[in-house]
Structure formats: structure tokens, C-alpha cells
Write a structure and sequence with these properties.
The complex is a heterodimer of chains A (about 120) and B (about 110).
Chain A lengths: L4 E3 L2 E4 L5 E6 L6 E7 L6 E7 L2 E4 L8 E4 L6 E5 L8 E8 L11 E2 L3 E5 L1
Parallel strand pairs in A: 2-11
Antiparallel strand pairs in A: 1-3, 3-8, 4-5, 4-9, 5-6, 7-8, 9-10, 9-11
Chain B lengths: L2 E3 L4 E5 L4 E3 L2 E3 L6 E6 L6 E5 L10 E2 L10 E3 L8 E8 L6 E3 L3 E6 L1
Parallel strand pairs in B: 2-11
Antiparallel strand pairs in B: 1-4, 3-8, 5-6, 5-9, 7-8, 9-10, 9-11
Classes of the chains: A mainly beta (about 120), B mainly beta (about 110).
Chain lengths: ~120, ~110
């Protein structure tokens, strides 16, 4: 079956603009994660959805960042008033529902490379 | 604080040589640790997890709670092992992952 998909694959924008990044998880995966990977760093957690609700948004760096998942499937990460420091690869991952037991493997998408000029 | 440290940015070895990619962690409680791999032009994927105690593609990793380490080892490196390797820690009940900065493994012919 299809894996996690992300669009666009690349996005170039100007400082101060608004951007939306989209993630399509694997069908049946109710858990969805966003990570940000800056150059030379590992992925850094941003937000986690279980179904439609954000269960953990502790990684969002500030209130310019927001994410939604209105129907419990596709998610959109929204960045307002972009800054040059927002330039990074934004990764989405999905997994089966959390059961309170051992780790459910997260399957990653190819990422969206955001460049803020 | 929860943290993962990978001290080497680059590890270069010759084909057939042993490999050890270092990972240290900081976590209060019982950690769950993983190695993720990213091959060139491919997406990030799970290589192995400590609770499975398995060998994948000849790689193994043992959790050493005394040394707070989870080093990745392979006795004989192959050229196709060349990739970026990330050590990761499950950070709490939400399943979120805390990654190290990664080590680029380059296996020379």
C-alpha cells in the first residue's frame, strides 16, 4: 500500500509569508506526528495528533506554528509570518493507535523542504 | 532532561571492517530506544528497537543502562550500509521520538 505522502516536496517562500504543508498518513493510522529537521540536526518533534485532536503540541516553537487534522486523516501544518530560521525539512509520520503498550512504529513521509528567503 | 547524544558526525570504514555507531541517552525511567536509518534519497525508516533484541541486516544494538548507551554494531560493514543513522528515544506516553544528531556511515570499497 501507499506510504505517508507529503506535499509539496519543496516550498520556497519569502520572509513574512504564510505557508501550508500537507501530510497524508497511511490509511488506518490514527496517530500522526510532525517533526522538523534543520540542517545537520536530527528530527525534532513538533506536534502529535490522535484522531482529530492535538494530544501533544509541546514541540511547536511559537504561536506562528499551528497544525490541524479536521477529519482525522490528512493534516496541515501552517506557519504564519515565516522567518529565515523556519527553513528546514518538515517530516510527517503516522502510526497505528497508541495502546499504552510498547512503541508503535512510526512510518515517515519524504518530507517537505521549506526555504524562507 | 531527555536527550540523545551521537558524538560522531561521520564514521568512515572500509568494507569488511567492524562498525560501531555510538549513542548515549539521558532519560529518567525505563527507556525505549531505537535506531533509524536514512539511505540516500530514501525516507527515514526504523532499523531496530532495543526491546526486540533482534539483528537486522547484520546490525545489533544492546541497551546498557549502567552506561546509558545503545551503540549500534556490525561485525563486517558492507558498502550498502552507507547511510545516515539516527539513534532515538521514545519520549513519554505520546510515542514521540527524541532523535540524536545522526552519524553518517561511509563504507569505502
Amino acid at each position: 500500500g501507499a506510504g505517508v505522502s507529503q506535499t509539496p516536496s519543496n516550498k520556497v517562500t519569502e520572509k513574512g509569508k504564510y505557508v501550508e504543508l500537507r501530510c497524508d498518513p497511511i490509511s488506518g493510522h490514527t496517530a500522526l506526528y510532525w517533526y522538523r529537521q534543520s540542517l545537520g540536526q536530527g528530527p525534532e518533534f513538533l506536534i502529535y495528533f490522535q484522531g482529530t485532536g492535538a494530544a501533544d503540541d509541546s514541540g511547536l516553537p511559537n504561536d506562528r506554528f499551528f497544525a490541524v487534522r479536521p477529519e482525522g486523516s490528512v493534516s496541515t501544518l501552517k506557519i504564519q509570518r515565516t522567518e529565515r530560521g523556519d527553513s528546514a525539512v518538515y517530516l510527517c509520520a503516522s502510526s497505528l493507535p497508541l495502546s499504552g503498550g510498547p512503541y508503535n512504529e512510526q512510518f515517515f513521509g519524504p518530507g517537505t523542504r521549506l526555504t524562507v528567503l | 532532561a531527555q536527550r540523545v547524544t551521537q558524538p560522531e558526525k561521520l564514521l568512515s570504514v572500509f568494507k569488511g571492517a567492524p562498525v560501531e555507531l555510538k549513542c548515549n541517552y539521558s532519560y529518567s525511567g525505563s527507556p525505549e530506544l531505537f535506531w533509524y536509518v536514512q539511505y540516500s534519497r530514501q525516507r527515514l525508516q526504523l532499523l531496530l528497537r532495543h526491546i526486540s533484541r533482534e539483528s537486522i541486516k547484520g546490525f545489533t544494538a544492546d541497551l546498557n543502562k549502567g552506561e546509558t548507551s545503545f551503540h549500534l554494531k556490525k561485525p563486517f560493514a558492507q558498502e550498502e550500509d552507507s547511510a545516515m543513522y539516527y539513534c532515538a528515544l521514545k519520549g513519554g506516553a505520546t510515542n514521540k521520538l527524541i532523535f540524536g544528531t545522526g552519524t553518517l556511515l561511509a563504507v569505502q570499497p
